[in-house]
Amino acid sequence: MTDKFYEFFCPVKVIAGKAALEHIPYELSGLAAKRPMIITDKGVRAAGLLDPVVSACEESGLDIVSIYDDVPPDSSKAVVRDIAGIYRSEKCDSIIAVGGGSAIDTAKAVNILVSEGGDDIAKYSGAGVLKHPLKPFFVVPTTAGTGSEVTAVAVIADTEKHVKLPFTSSFLLPNAAIIDPRMTLTLPPHITAATAMDALTHATEAFTCMAKNPLSDAYATAAIKKITGNLLKVMDSPKDADGRLELAQASTMAGIAFSNSMVGLVHALGHATGAICHLPHGLCMSLYLPYVLEYNLETIREPLGELLLYLDGADVYAATPASRRAEAAISAIRRMRDALYKRCELPRTLKETGKVLESQLDDIARAALDDGAIMFNPKEVSLDDAKAVLARAWA
Question: From edge to edge, which strands make up the β-sheet containing 153-158?
């Protein structure tokens, strides 16, 4: 980084550990909130993950006024409008999001509507549109990957225009993020793998993209160390609560890192692929990460080489010549993907997903060039460059 100026901002209170959920009523009462709404999805409810949240509130005499459990994987303007209507009719005064990235993003968008008014979330899209604090808002993540519990962004689909609407404001940040290992113990192997690779990508891009800074670097490297030290252990022992907590904390750290230093081409391609082919975001991150690092290699050789220490440990780092550490870091990520494929068949190429057509690659490339994340990629990307990366990621 040649420019010495940077900003770092993360005012979210983090409550983490094996009894973190029990602190929710205290946090709500501190903001004079008495009528919370829970926003979640059917998978979370079916897995029984709402039970400890509701129990923690009821034991403190706090009633959950409304539970909306029908958030889809790709939330839309219509879903946000419907939930905001329920919030108003039930006279709720706060929101608890319980779930992964989609539930959290949906809750952020609902908070905009119930705080600012109106029914069309699109009018608040963009950066800097919000001018006032929103309603009390708490996040309980059930995946260890998105980092949405500590980011000032949300993405909601406009299904009519087939685009994803971005929202960026510090007012979107939750009042607190509750990180409890009970919430990720039942994650299926492929979701455990994909969300961890999402967090790994957040941290890696935060450390190698243009807006990196010393504080985001510290969070990024700590996150990578936790992921590489715990992901395969958790894949082999899914009920390892300590390992689950480490991955959840890594996700939060990576979220803090990238929300302060931004991301690059991996995310631009991933957003485009998600919009066009409806692949889960974490899977897209895992698919594209090594190919984009290879594309950026000569621009990011020094920082990428530093990451070898956190990806493969001190012994490998010391034994690898400095001139080869960047390539070794990419190899370490490839080995991680191979290990995950062996355990749960998490796809490593677009072809392996079975959901992407080769004929769609040009459309993905064009859409990626219009994505805001590409501005922070350390190397300029042309349409032909994006097509070339996609061709390598195909098979």
Answer: 126-127, 163-168, 153-158
Instruction: Write the pLDDT tens digit of every residue in 138-164.
Output: 999 999 999 999 999 998 988 888 778
CATH for 312: 1.20.1090.10
Q: Look at the chain and report how many structural domains it folds into.
A: 2
**Helix locations, 170-313, DSSP H:** 189-208, 214-236, 241-261, 265-277, 281-312
Domain range for 50 is 13-182
**Does 155 lie in the same domain as 203?**
no
Give tens-digit pLDDT for 30-68.
999 999 999 999 999 999 999 999 999 999 989 899 999
Same domain, 45 and 66: yes
Residue 3 domain-assigned (yes or no)? no
* Long-range Cβ pairs for the range 73-76 (8 Å, 24+): 73/41, 73/102, 73/280, 74/102, 74/157, 74/274, 74/278, 75/102, 75/103, 75/105, 75/106, 75/109, 75/156, 75/157, 76/156, 76/157, 76/158, 76/159
Residues 95 and 50 in one domain: yes
Please, which pLDDT band fits residue 3 given cuts at 50, 70 and 90?
low
User: H-type helices in the chain, by residue range?
Assistant: 24-29, 42-46, 50-58, 77-89, 101-116, 189-208, 214-236, 241-261, 265-277, 281-312, 314-319, 325-344, 350-353, 361-369, 383-394
**41 and 106 assigned to the same domain:** yes
CA 149 to chain centre: 8
Q: What is the CATH number of the domain that holds 136?
A: 3.40.50.1970
Torsion of CA 230, 285, 6, 374, to 10 degrees: 170
CB 71 within 8 A of CB 41: yes
Structure tokens at 87: 């919030």
Q: Which residues contact 46 (CB under 8 A, 6 or more apart)?
A: none
Residue 6 lies in a domain: no
Q: What single-letter amino acid sits at 5?
A: F
Residue 1 — pLDDT band, cuts 50, 70, 90? very low
Residue 5 lies in a domain: no
Residue 317 has which token pair?
A: 């780092």
* 250, 387: one domain: yes
